[in-house]
Amino acid sequence: MEPHNHSSLSEFVLLGFPRVGHIRGWIFVLLLLAYLFTICGNMLIFLVIRLDAALHTPMYHFVSILSFLELWYTATTIPKMLANLLSDKKTISFSGCLLQTYFFHSLGASECYLLTAMAYDRYLAICRPLHYPAVMTPMLCAKMAAGCWTCGFLCPISEVILVSKLPFCGYNEIQHIFCDFPPLLSLACKDTSTNVLVDFAINAFIILITFLFIMVSYGRIIGTVLQIKTIAGRKKAFSTCASHLIVVLIFFGSIIFMYVRLKESYSLTLDRTLAVVYSVLTPLVNPIIYSLRNKELIKAIKRTIFRKGERASPTQH
């Protein structure tokens, strides 16, 4: 069979979760509940931080931006995954597939940069407390946040352009739960070693450099915390960044194994499992981690809810 050019391939088939059979309905319900919890949890954190003046600090500024980012990060993949679980026709257009891949990687790269900015904020607050108020100004916070979004959305452009120029064969079934570079490259009719190398270089730069910067920051933070004489002082200092470190380890632990490699795939099952971790699990647990381990945020949520309740209740005479 002669290979077809990508211009003749108008759509792909997302196989999603194959061979799930009668448990498809349960997977749909679990995924839907996870998505609704992710939306409600991250939206709650974002709104509470924005509405409560006591949380208008650099640390919570970045947490609110992370929650806002997670709303869009999950919106690029989960709705389509839910639709495919209900439908027998699991197709996505060629342009739609490229757009999903672009936005998923743009938001993922933005999250890498944002988590790095959050680590730098914690480093300054704990290791340079006297300089912290003068350095971490609202203007610098805004510039850092804008830089995270801008760099994130610029990073995948070259990868998407290279993939869009590849010729694709008649076989159009994507062995994944959403459109991504590795499964797309496996469908190309020509050698994709250049694409794999470019993907590896860009992903290694974004993921490994940011992860290294975060780990160095936490290495210095831990060194500073250990110098505090009292146990209570150590616990208080480290509690401000423990939530962030947990999120970093979950998110980077999965994406490093998935994207910093010179092979298109190690195992389809493993790839799908890792994809669920960084596309569904991480955004799901972020609100839980940040709220349960943060007394200030819990108090702010209660204040906001009670304040809304008082306004909604009729005035007693």
Characterize the structure shown:
This is Olfactory receptor family 6 subfamily N member 2. This protein is mostly helical and 317 residues long. The chain has helices at 24-51, 58-75, 78-86, 94-127, 132-135, 138-154, 157-164, 181-185, 193-226, 231-259, 268-292, 295-312; strands spanning 11-14, 91-93, 173-174. The protein has twelve helices and three strands, in the order βαααβααααβααααα. A three-stranded mixed sheet has the order 2-1-3. Helix 4 runs parallel beside helix 9. The model is unreliable at 1-7 (pLDDT under 50).
Largest sheet: 3 strands, mixed
The helix-strand sequence is EHHHEHHHHEHHHHH
Q: How many strands appear in the DSSP assignment?
A: 3
Gyration radius, rounded? 22 Å
Number of helical regions: 12
What form results from the Cα inertia axes?
A: globular
Main sheet: strand order = 2-1-3
Q: What is the helix fraction of residues, given as a range? A: over 70%
Strand content: under 5%
Q: Roughly how many Å apart are the termini?
A: 84 Å
Average residue-wise pLDDT: 86
SSE class: mainly alpha
Q: Low-confidence stretches at least 5 residues in length (pLDDT < 50)?
A: 1-7
